[in-house]
Write a structure and sequence with these properties.
It is found in: Cytoplasm; Nucleus. With 70 residues, the chain is mostly helical. The chain has helices spanning 2-18, 25-32, 47-57; strands spanning 35-36, 43-44.
C-alpha cells in the first residue's frame, strides 16, 4: 500500500518540476526588447522600429547605426 502512495507523490513532484515557470510578462518583454532610442530611452524590438520611431518622433535627427544586424 505504501508503494502506491509513494508513486502518486513522485508523480505529483515530477508534474510540479515539469510545469513552466510562471514569470511575469515584464521579464519576457525585457528579454525581447533589444534596441533603444538614445534620445528618449524608448525600448524597441528591432532596428526597423527604431527607424520608424526616429521618423515619427525625431524627424530632424538621423537614426544611429544599430549595433546588432538582423
Amino acid at each position: 500500500m505504501t508503494r502506491g502512495k509513494q508513486k502518486m507523490e513522485a508523480q505529483k513532484r515530477n508534474a510540479e518540476k515539469t510545469q513552466k515557470p510562471k514569470g511575469s510578462q515584464l521579464e519576457a518583454r525585457a528579454v525581447a526588447l533589444k534596441s533603444s532610442c538614445p534620445i528618449c530611452k524608448v525600448q524597441l524590438a528591432n532596428s526597423k522600429q527604431l527607424v520608424d520611431h526616429y521618423a515619427s518622433k525625431h524627424p530632424k535627427e538621423k537614426p544611429s547605426t544599430p549595433s546588432e544586424s538582423e
